[in-house]
Amino acid sequence: MKRKxxxxxxxxxxxxxxxxxxxxxxxxxxxxxxxxxxEQGNKLCESGQYAxxxxxxxxxxxxxxxxxxADSRLATSQNNLAACYHAEARYAxxxxxxxxxxxxxxxxxxxxxxxxxxx
Length: 119
Hints:
- By secondary structure, the chain is mostly helical.
- It has a domain at 33-112: Serine Threonine Protein Phosphatase 5, Tetratricopeptide repeat (Alpha Horseshoe).
- Helix 1 runs parallel beside helix 3 (72-87).
- 76% of the residues lie in helices and 0% in strands.
């Protein structure tokens, strides 16, 4: 029976840990920035500062898109921005973002910000 080369496993795992540590740290930094932006945007919206809230929540949405992953951050960002638009009586824009947050949207989220500026 052949013996497996397991003596190299700890070295390989250590190397991979060192290699991936900066990536994990960067993801954690992006996540904390994303959380901060969402919290700030939600507070601004709740206090009726809609224009400033929109800017901050669009930044949170952009931060969520940076990850390139279709995770809950993107849906949460879309939902938060939609809720702010709804509070401001921008119902059509809110409905579009709510649909995207549910995964049924066809247009990339960045198109919403362009359309709202041209209106």
